[in-house]
Amino acid sequence: MKTTVLFLTLGGLLLGAASAAADMHADMQQLAEEKQCLSCHARDDDTPRAPSFNSIAAKYAGSEMHDYLVEVVLSGGEDHWGSATMPEPGERPEVSEAEAKQLVDWILGKAKE
């Protein structure tokens, strides 16, 4: 009986964690859409305008570049990735520092998927 309860409890925890992860993904996907990130970036395939989120995650996986990437999201500019130019603030929806950190965490998390 104790073993059954333990398995049911663990199973519930795992389902709850999976549900929370799915909710976070949906929230971050929505934030990326609201901030127009998806106008230039795709999830899987690089475009002529910008690298994919998966390419960014692979390039910076395990690196200490989190703060740098947050600054790129906040400031835009060029020379971050080949000839791709990220729109400057004012040319795209405003992104707060907290939102930039969330987006970078989400993108870098794709390297673990």
Automatic annotation (TrEMBL):
Domain Cytochrome c span(s) in chain numbering: 22-111
Q: Which residues form the signal peptide?
A: 1-20
Q: Which domain of life is it from?
A: Bacteria
Q: Which SUPFAM superfamilies match?
A: Cytochrome c
- InterPro entries for the chain: Cyt_c-like_dom, Cyt_c-like_dom_sf, Cyt_c_ID
Keywords from the named record: Electron transport, Heme, Iron, Metal-binding, Signal, Transport
Q: What is this protein called?
A: Cytochrome c-551
Task: Give the organism the record lists.
Answer: Halomonas pelophila
